[in-house]
Amino acid sequence: MLMIGIEGLALNAGERGYLKHPSVAGVILFARNFSDKNQLQELCADIRASAPRPQLLCVDQEGGRVQRFRAGFAKLPCLQDIGALLHRDRQAALDLARQHAFLMAGEVIAAGLDLSFAPVTDLGLGNLAIGNRAFAAEPGRVAECITAYIEGMHLAGMAATLERLKVLAEQGS
Length: 173
Description:
Blueprint: E1 2-5, H1 13-19, E2 24-29, H2 37-50, E3 56-59, E4 61-63, E5 66-67, H3 79-88, H4 90-110, E6 115-116, H5 139-156
């Protein structure tokens, strides 16, 4: 099954054709596909209407520097900020992780999408691609935050993907 991207703010004829292919199961949207909430809702409705079967509509809406939809959406802090709070106030950090996830998921669902590729599960060990997208460097702290985050997503009605970004080259492969 394939997840495709689209070029702009609306479907073009070629993309409508791709949606009819039996291997296409969904569409991932990026900042290039977003101008405002109304346009996004119309795009999602058009994607669904153009496909002969249900499509999974997705986005990376983690917060911080990876927040594809901005205008009209809550500005979400990066996950590292939540992890930093965990060192000072465990309960406040876990509550914030739940609230962050609930808000993110609720907004994404209300816009017409099904899923955000979140949360990032990598450890914050200095990888530039990960940066402040990770909750923390310590596995136990990351696990606590991820558990709370998933609870928030589930409360909003969204599944979690547990995105892992670590590059294979860093593992010596």
